[in-house]
Write a structure and sequence with these properties.
The structure is a single chain. By secondary structure, the protein is mainly alpha-helical. It is built from nine helices and no strands.
């Protein structure tokens, strides 16, 4: 259940993005800007959530499910990362449908499924539940490569522009990773309240660093929403 938000966040954004891409498909420049905004927004929400689940998987399992479920913690880590990577596929699905190329979604799903089917037996045999979960991540990465190829080609978009859209979330997430690792070495998380408290502090730190980074880099989302906020405030 902890992985559900990673699936629902991109899905909700996709529902909004599809009609937008449909309207903009004749203007590649505007559509490119809209795509990068969607990517930045999706990553800013789902990446920190995936990383927090990855870092605190053992604590989440212990506190919420009990120590007898501890063997599920490594699998949860793989599934959290796979959920984040799959989010790109969902946003790409809106783009491909919007420009009238829905077959690309089928191609994305096929590559992911074939990769998983080919690996699931040997990986499960060798590594058990952790190996099975890792095949989900590997399949997601294989699909992501195809998604990225089609997206960059359709929008005539450079890899640098794509990575720049991810940069604020990547930088802010790196900060909370460093902070969380330090906290985990000092704190003894034995209650739900302690776990939620640490996650809340990580979320506040992430938000502060993300906003500062977005401002310094003049990211698309910051450029779009900051003037409106200042106008309303004024």
């Amino acid at each position: 259940t902890s992985i559900i938000p990673l699936r629902e966040i991109p899905r909700g954004i996709t529902d909004v993005a599809f009609p937008m891409y449909s309207r903009l498909q004749t203007d590649v420049k505007v559509m490119r800007k809209a795509f990068l905004s969607v990517i930045e927004f999706t990553t800013s929400l789902s990446l920190p959530l995936a990383v927090v689940i990855f870092l605190f998987a053992e604590d989440i399992v212990t506190v919420v499910l009990g120590e007898k479920w501890m063997p599920a913690a490594p699998a949860m880590r793989y599934l959290a990362l796979a959920g984040f990577v799959n989010g790109f596929g969902n946003t790409g699905g809106a783009l491909f449908n919007g420009v009238g190329k829905p077959w690309m979604n089928m191609q994305f799903s096929l590559v992911r499924a074939v990769t998983m089917i080919a690996l699931v037996y040997p990986m499960t045999l060798a590594f058990g539940l952790e190996g099975a979960a890792s095949t989900v991540l590997i399949g997601s990465i294989a699909g992501f490569i195809l998604y990225l190829y089609h997206s960059l080609r359709i929008l005539s978009l450079s890899m640098w522009a794509f990575l720049k859209a991810l940069a604020p979330a990547l930088i802010a997430t790196s900060v909370i990773v460093a902070a969380s690792l330090g906290v985990r070495q000092q704190a003894d998380i034995r209650s739900l309240q302690a776990l939620l408290g640490i996650m809340a502090l990580a979320g506040l730190l992430y938000l502060a660093v993300y906003l500062l980074t977005s401002w310094r880099m003049k990211s698309l989302l910051f450029s779009q929403f900051a003037p409106r906020f200042m106008g309303i405030k004024g």
